[in-house]
Here is the input.
Amino acid sequence: MTQPLLFEISRPGRCAVRLPDLDVPPTDLPAGLVRSDLPLPEVSESDLVRHYTRLSQMNYAVDIGLYPLGSCTMKHNPRINEEMARLPGFAYLHPYQDEETTQGALFVGYSLQQFLSEIGGFAAVSLQPAAGAQGELAGVLMMRAYHIDRGDPQRDVMLVPDSAHGTNPATTSMSGLRVIEIPSDGRGNVDLASLETACVEHSSRLVGMMLTNPNTLGLFEQNVEEITALVHEHGGLMYGDGANMNALLGIARPGDLGFDVLHYNLHKTFSTPHGGGGPGCGPVGAAASLADFLPGPVVAMDVEQSEEDAPHFTLVVPPKPIGRVKAFYGHFGIWVRAYTYVRMLGAEGMRRVAEHAVLNANYLMSAVKGVYPIPYDRTCMHEFVCEGRFEDAPDVRALDVSKRLIDYGFHPPPNYFPLIVREALMIEPTETESKETLDRFADALLAIAEEARVSPELLYDAPHNAPVRRLDEVAAARNMILRWQPE
Amino acid sequence: MARVESSRRLGLRVPLSFAVLRAGVPGILAPPPRSCHGFSHMPYIPHSDPDREEMLSRIGAPSIESLFECVPASVRFPELDLPPGLSEIDVRREMESLAGANYSAADGPCFLGAGAYYHFVPAVVDAVLRRGEFYTAYTPYQPEISQGTLQTVFEYQTMICALTGMEVSNASHYDGATATAEAVITAINVHRLKRRKVVVSPWVHPEYRAVVRTYTQGMGLHVVGDVHSGPMAPASTLEALGEQVDGDTACVIVQYPDFLGRIEDLSDVAEAAHEAGALLVVVADPIGLGLLKPPGEYGADIVVGEGQGLGAGLTFGGPYLGFFATRDKYVRRMAGRLVGQTVDAEGKRGFVLTLSTREQHIRREKASSNICTNQGLIALAAAVYMAAMGRRGLRELSELCYHRAHYAADQIDQLEGYTVLREKSFFKEFAVRCRRPVKAINACLIDEWGILGGYDLGRDYPHLQGHMLVCVTEMNPREDIDLLVEALGDACGA
Here is the structure.
């Protein structure tokens, strides 16, 4: 099943849009500044609708079935979110309008800041960052700015566990800081002795530490209080990667655990869609000591509400901001969706989300345990990591298991991450999946393990019933065809 | 069109939800969570009581709470001070009330631009975006079941190249500002970190220049060129910019049309940059490129910009779309996701994410950017939009903006108290010197006429106090423009 490219269905003279006739006297076009050709496709509206409908049918999505990508929290995206973000009073708002005309939008922003502060245990939140990685960049720059502000500019060392997501070290480098990697111990926690050694060795240069909790193994960092105390003792700050916040909603607040700054992923924890790769939204929460450095503007309430009066909101820039990380205020359309979600669920719902996310992950883990090796065998949080390898089928790899899952109608979990587990399969079911779905997924995994022993070629050749067969990624990198060109 | 009856400012309705939300303001505690056996109905959690019991027994755990024993007891199960959950009916009422408290471009004529534009979005764009197969998928890590997303990105990359006159485009950045910052990082890497200077035109969007400084604050760069004292003659800007380029310059950044809407031939500044071995980065308006010579033809090395006009809508500043296109030779220095064409095991054409060895999940601390999630769905909107408009439509639309903007400029220029700055050609925006403060004029426009007036250039340029940046698009028919002219006359006469 393939679909021709737009450029291949294009026919001269077609156009899907009719524009208004020119209703003003024309002006001469600027001499020497006008293009001679515009090589865009020419298609009708019906061409377009069919093209994209057919392409959509070649995608797997949460709307089709379980999408257990670890640390991505592929939960159901409530439909009310989508409708609310499209209300004309939100969708047609220009960011530079006078604040008197945007009070409803600012209310949403202010309230969401409050909600996230409360959920994370922070003094303040900026909603500006566009995605988790940008939230990280903001947070790390804030830590750097904090030390410079205190007359400690030589601090340039960031501690990052070996299980960390790749954005953590990448962000550190982008911020002009050095990465020191900290190994994990036999239970999947940060190795405390190594951490202490690193803290002592780099004490005067320590910016802080980046920690994901639960970590990318899906395990709650049991020594989190010791870790944060140790880093603080050496003048460092604790950065929390909030990718895995879905496990902590109403369970524990990162601020209470000793984190100084944390990014949230609204497109993971707060049910906003992943969009085929964005847009996300990565708000940053900060403890009181770091709140002045938040990127801005943020929304402030300059007139408190009373019995008679509505509150009044305004955009303000924090006192010592790291600067703005993007134009305007952030992904407002995503704020509306996340705000809607928090309003739907309330405090009780937040906790129920985390509880069921953790229940589902533990249930799946117990269903495959014994067949798929579990490197760190303890109660997991919202996700778990198992190994996609079998002693009696040594040539089968995690990638083969993944590709075979496609034949069973499931999206595979990520392979080979975290890097510290051999042939890792990182599975996060989320709370929105039912027991029946989990049972079917576990049955598929168990059947594949059996196939690996008796007919491994079924795995090597998989997928068999996807729109395309296994794709040659090496050829793609070698030939580099990155756009369509006429023959 | 009649004047708006009453002042919008005074008439702003107090939304119902302010009362509803009192419970949400910290200090008024929500009811404590009930125990495991007293669940409220949660629409997004499918578990029944028997499900929970069966699952716990399989796990071998006595209760859901027991799964959290690894969490320090002193901080476990905080009582969150959030408002209680609501039904969808109540949430909808609240949101409609909040949306209704705004006055938007849907309510009256809008002449505000400055980087976010009220452009037409054909219905087909949202129809495609609403397909769950697109919006509830994620990054296409498994190409066999992501061909829909991958092919749309490949088509997007092709169309961005066509529009900009460049050879390669990535899958998107967060917005025009961060795409500009990433262009700087690319240029620094092209020069293998040996050049430390970035020359940026003062007429690049002020917020983009701010983001460049935020992104590079830890990199020890010198960002120059946009610091200006006194009035800067617009004609001399590109030349003056070229004069600041030297052997330590990694790149020169200009905007096209610039922040004041002006269009200029970029050949000379390209030459000045290239003579010094620096890259030329052009921040372009994609709608303008429907009509204007593409930056690639001037010799641009990187073309970035805000793709918001390509079907993203206004939505109070985001999510928008950063596009990024460059020359083939810089492809390995470019950040962001990239889709390439290949074949499957049966020789059929297919698409995959490629050159991912540049990215953070492989290179970790050696990656030049930390970007992973980008603006996938907005890039899809842009692709549908560009295809819907096509070769003819985008040119027509671009010309419509151009002619209407010039008509508006001519009319406003004739008004007492207003002078249009028009030494240079312009596209859809132009600066107007006003006798009264812009804030006062805009207050009159919105209060008396229901018109969203132009951008106050004094916010960013001290020497342009009293100057308004007016934007005219295909969404402003002649009658709106005539109303604006009448309202402006009224605002200055008052």
